[in-house]
Amino acid sequence: MAGIYTAVGDVRQGLQNHKGIFHEALTTMGAVLGASLVGIDKSTQQYNYVAMLKNYFNKETGWNIMMNNTCPEVALLGGGYGRDWWYDVYPNVLFYSIYSLYPNEKDFEQIARSIAEKFYAADSVLQGNYNYSFFNYATLTPTQNQICIQPDAAAGQAWVLYMAYKKFGDKRYLHGAINAIKALLALNENMTYELLMPYGAYVAAMLNVEAGQQFDFQKILDWSFDGNAKCREGWGVLVGNWNGFDISGMVGSTVHNGGYGFLMNTYDLALPLLPMVRYDASYAAAVGKWMLNAANVARLFYPQYMPANHQTLPNAIATSKGVIAYEGIIKKSLYKESEHLAAPVAQGDGPLWVQDKNPRESQLSVYGSGHVGIFGSTIHPTNIPGILQLDLLATDFFHQEAYPTHLYTNPYAATKAVIIKNKLKHPIDLYNTVEGKFVARNIRQHFSYKIGAKKTAVLVQVPAGALITTINGKLLANNVVIDFRKN
């Protein structure tokens, strides 16, 4: 078994505490996924870290899904096990993401099938009503408790079921995904809780072009960003400039102590939003703008990039080793000894989890930092500072055959020439899904592409001279879809 500390020095964890069995799937799975996305094979190192993730599969409890803790004995120590819906759904989102990268890992197919069956059964029981705090996947019983109802769990369920459909072809899973999206769209107010809502937009976009649906999912994206959530008050994407620091793009509470953004939530929003643009390029400009802001603010979570007088641990660089970031950035610190610091303040909640026991260093978030691979695999620089090359395939798990596809957004008030490098081993043509046309032909190595002021492009690298056909509103090159909405 492998487990990673949730935060630096967390006294609840480690081999000497609670028999070493308390650690969170969000941390361990997030780190394995993040590393795998940037090309590190976590199954072939000294230990097979991918195989050890099976310890989060809770079979003895009858839940038969991946859960945030390994067993009920440590459930109340932290992590929302069996009582807080998103904590039970998200480990399965992470598992399916990892499964797509390690399809031959022993027992993974069986686990994936079990998860899909449980999620399908849950949707069948819920019958379009996800207004509960959590769902008992052992007894198939929806429950309300003191925690907010979380109907956005429907988005996470829909994503897992649709991934299961793509993998296994079982139409029950497709129907379950459609039902869950319908339940989400039936909501009349913003019930965003944490992390899951944007997956609904991603699934809806895929269902529209791959399963003949006609979902208008604009409000799901609005709810993911607007910060007007009803129960998780203010949850969304922060916008602003605090004392000369642009903090726009980070995800969290827009109201807590003036605003409190979190690193893991910021990284993880990119996972569904970037591939969504492949299926609906009308959102390319909005997602590109958010990604540029998110990439800009993300560095401030790391001690080496935030001025010492704007962080609660001024000597944190040595402890963080340059790779462990603060859990969050807040406008006014939660800690009395740090109230004098001017905004923005890099800090974390670790010391509040175990009052007077967790060290101050537990403000450094191992679980958030492990998800950095989501940005690492999707964000690449270009020859123009401020214009990013965003990979739309990196987190589009279980996708059909596709050609290299990247999003570029020009934030400048003037046209810029971006160098596009040929990713294939033969000449390419460039197709822009935003404009719905080919914009360059027969590129052998690289091409200088002019992006207009404040404009966005989604460029697909198509084999030069490919046979172009149109089938059911999709544009194909050599039978590979290059534009899902070619009307």
Write a compact overview of the structure shown:
This protein has 487 residues and is α+β, with helices and mostly antiparallel strands. It is built from 14 helices and 22 strands. The strands form seven sheets. The protein has a six-stranded antiparallel sheet with strand order 12-13-14-19-16-17. Strands 3-6-7-9-10 form a five-stranded antiparallel sheet.
Could you give the topology of this structure?
Elements: H1 25-37, H2 49-52, H3 85-101, H4 108-126, E1 134-136, E2 141-143, H5 153-168, H6 171-185, H7 197-210, H8 218-226, E3 235-237, E4 241-242, E5 245-246, E6 251-253, E7 260-262, H9 263-279, H10 284-298, H11 316-320, E8 325-326, E9 328-330, E10 345-347, H12 350-353, E11 364-365, H13 366-369, H14 373-378, E12 379-381, E13 388-391, E14 405-409, E15 416-421, E16 428-432, E17 437-443, E18 446-451, E19 456-463, E20 468-471, E21 474-477, E22 480-483
Antiparallel strand pairs: 1-2, 3-6, 4-5, 6-7, 7-9, 8-11, 9-10, 12-13, 13-14, 14-19, 15-18, 16-17, 16-19, 20-21, 21-22
Helix pairs in contact: 1-3, 3-4, 3-5, 4-5, 4-6, 5-6, 5-7, 6-7, 7-8, 7-9, 9-10
